[in-house]
Amino acid sequence: MGPIPLLLLLSYTAVSVVCGVESEEDYTWHLRKVPQVLNKRTVTLSSPGFKAEAKPVLNGTCGIECQSRLPLASVADLENFLSYETVYENGTRTSTEVYFRDFDVQAEHEVMKDSHSRGKRQVYGMDSRFSISDKQFVTNYPFSTTVKISTGCTGILVSPKHVLTAAHCVHDGTDYIKGAKKLRVGILKLRSKRRGKKRKGSKRNKRAAEVKPSFQWTRVKHTQVPKGWFREVTDDVAVDYDYAVLELKRPHKKKFMELGISPTVKKLPGSRIHFSGFDDDRPGQLVYRFCSVSDESNDLMYQYCDAQPGSSGSGIYIRLKEPEKKKWKRKIIGIFSGHRWVDVNGMQQDYNVAVRITPLKYAQICFWIRGNYADCQYG
Q: Which of 19, 59, 243, 321 is deepest in the core (most CB within 10 A)?
């Protein structure tokens, strides 16, 4: 798509929300009590091999149609899926079993699927992506929350020390990928670069500094991945657990984006979602897009956003009003899993897929970030 002024683009997305047929009450963050995901037992495992190859496009995914034919997961199944591994920077690894408290299994299994038209799309026809070229915008909120993962993916800042991304960016379902052994996160910052050297004692030869955004790389302290992503635990619903949290060795000073529980499509302003990523076909550029959701299940969203490899792991966010306030607030409601070939009536079709943040996933990710349950009671 040709260059469009960013302020005009953002104004359009805001106007499209207000001018919809729904009332403002429909576009409010409704906080609710979430279940607790508690640690039961942690054991030490052998160090992973770190031999897997990163895959830009994943095939054979059991998507919304395929999963609709599966039996509902029991509480024991869900506890197994949300148990998790932690891999540390020195190569050691632990496995933690979890159990639930205050969990309503019926609410978690609530079917929120409507009749939406489905369409396959990666990038075709008119490309609806927008490169954020303005150096001030790219290093300011909300675009500044988008980070680059050294394995070739994207992530989003969710605390001063944590990044949310896709599980497949660090693990292929069987083993951790090669680049995950020395994982790093790149945060865009403005840096000054002088065009010439200044002579000692001379003011005339002083050249203006050129300010450009560049990555400041930080090592990852440890990585946490739910076992639902592992093929030995589950295969058919693995894509539902395509998320991971990375803890940085040192905190950043950027504004981060908070987590939220994903509402139904009907509660999304204009039925739209937003995300930014570092698409491979636009090297060195941060790419923003917004689009409509075409179909959803309890755990997944199919959407029409144009995307390329490299954008996997991006944080899907929306903007809703805060309760009893006039301010609108952005929150992350999902993780972009990427362009996937999914099973539809025994045939493989391609879709852009995102993992929804459900109450259980919110409780787990929040605990990974905050380290206590008191700060994760409502989402």
A: 243
